[in-house]
Amino acid sequence: MRDNNFYTALPGIDQPIHKAGFLGFKWKDWSIGAYYSEQEAKSKPGIYFISPWKLFEFAYSPEMKKHYVSINFYSDQFGLTSPKIVSRIQTFGQKKEIDGTFYSSISSQKLEFKLTGYRGKSEDLFALDPDRSELKGKAQLTRLGIVSNSYFSLEWIRAWNRPLEFDLKQSDSFSSDILQLLDSEKKFRQDLDPSSKRWEIIAGKAPIFYDFFWGGILLALRNYSNETIGRGIYYGLVRKNFTIEAGQEWRINGDSITEGKWSFRLNEFWNLEGAFLFQKEGNKTDSLFEARTARDETSLIFTDRSSSFRLRLLSPYIAFTVSHSRRKENKNEGIWINLQAQFIF
Prior knowledge:
Elements: E1 20-27, E2 30-37, E3 41-50, E4 56-61, E5 66-74, E6 84-94, E7 97-107, E8 111-121, E9 126-127, E10 137-148, E11 153-163, H1 176-192, E12 199-211, E13 215-223, E14 229-238, E15 242-251, E16 256-265, E17 271-279, E18 287-292, E19 298-303, E20 307-314, E21 318-326, E22 333-341
């Protein structure tokens, strides 16, 4: 089971866990057994199962009634060369409260389809002013994108947020009639609450100039859910081992942003990537900041920070990440540096 306060950026390394012990049987690449964990399986042992290539992984704690499921599909493992298919699904949690991520990509030499999804803590999706308590709780994100190597792209993004709620059933301070009335009021407010669908964005880019060697000049259009339209101009360059994109967006409500991202794949295993975002002081609409979460995956963060920057070096043996952001009003700055190394022995 996962440690909620830490993660690993190294590819192929399992999430760090609390103090735990495992006892199982292994035959070739199959593995099955039981485990102990000081957090999830202290009085009752949990069970786990791992298939070859880690195509399917499963763990369950009867004590906490929590599960973890991971499905990893790579077409090249099955001898399929074209199109290239990568699909990863991870879910964890209890029966009525399941979190997780989904990533799927189908790509050829000229076109790529991407579908990603997220459900979990709002803090992982919204990097906003701490005083904005309406965006604390559970969040969900769905993202569908189509990208052409000639720089055409189309993207649809929708995000929801569900604020944290007080559990009435666990309270002994109210009578059953009052609890029933409060529960009805809560359901009525949920039906009227617009925060359950915070965002819906449709975006597209098209080249007005394109050259394989020099790159392309792109016109961009974003339609935000609050009836705000953003128009932008970007420069993009795509190669086999690296991509660069940077530009400016102006919105009809007076907002403007400058953003960019890059990825340099030194070889099959080493990758240097980063992104930046600068927002004009007084922007009314939160912006999207794209950060790479794995070798082939990216995630979106909704932020009102005046500036955000991220740089990461990723390899099989070392992962180095530097993140910096500045809040828009009080100008407080934050920097986060993380270094992880793997020693094989």
